[in-house]
Amino acid sequence: MVTLRMRVNGTTRSLDIEPWVSLLDALREQLDLTGTKKGCDQGACGACTVLADGERINSCLALAVQYEDRDITTIEGITHPIQQAFIEHDGFQCGYCTSGQICSAIGMLAEHGAGMPSAVTEPGATGLSEAEIRERMSGNLCRCGAYNGIVDAIKEVAR
Fold first, then answer.
1. Helices (H) and strands (E) in the chain, counts
2. Closest CA relative to residue 8, chosen from 69, 80, 82, 83
3. Out of 3.30.70.20, 3.20.20.70, 3.40.50.280, 1.10.150.120, which CATH number does the structure's domain 81-158 have?
């Protein structure tokens, strides 16, 4: 067993876990933060996306011990205009992917705001095009197909 400390949703938490436990499993099973979903458990779907020091990560691919003394934000710790925009633009249907989509959108907006280009960023572009939003969010899958609502929600908040 390993004892580690991390700040989760603004609260410092101490965990006694095995060193091979994923951050996703630590959040869900040790801290009872079940808003972060286990989808594929292989980093392919994005349902487990959380923010680590403000950057989006797939928590199923991260070992909890890697995040000693780091700030982790899950959907339970988020209050952001993107949540209301998802509701207004029907950016979710079954809701399973929604927590990962929202965390990813917040991280993506921060990346864009910091000037990080994507594969489709047009030279000199200042805003987010639909193609750029779709490319930047491509790591998050929605089995229900709510992509148009997700894009519309992100466009609204990005303005």
1. 5, 5
2. 69
3. 1.10.150.120
C-alpha to C-alpha distance for 59 and 120, rounded to whole angstroms: 26
The domain 2-77 having CATH identifier 1.10.150.130: the answer here is no
What pTM does this model have? 0.95
DSSP 88: H
The model's pLDDT over 107-131, given as tens digits with 9 standing for 90+, comes to 999 999 999 989 888 887 778 999 9
Best CA proximity match to 95, nearest among 81, 75, 79: 75
Nearest to 105 by CA among 62, 151, 41: 151
Span(s) in the chain for CATH 3.10.20.30: 2-77
The CB-side HSE value for 78 (13 A sphere, CA atoms) comes to: 27
Cα(134)–Cα(113) distance, integer angstroms:
16
Cβ pair 62, 124 in contact under 8 A: no
Which tokens in the block code for residue 1? 């067993």
- Tens of pLDDT, residue by residue over 17-53, are 999 999 999 999 999 999 999 999 999 999 999 999 9
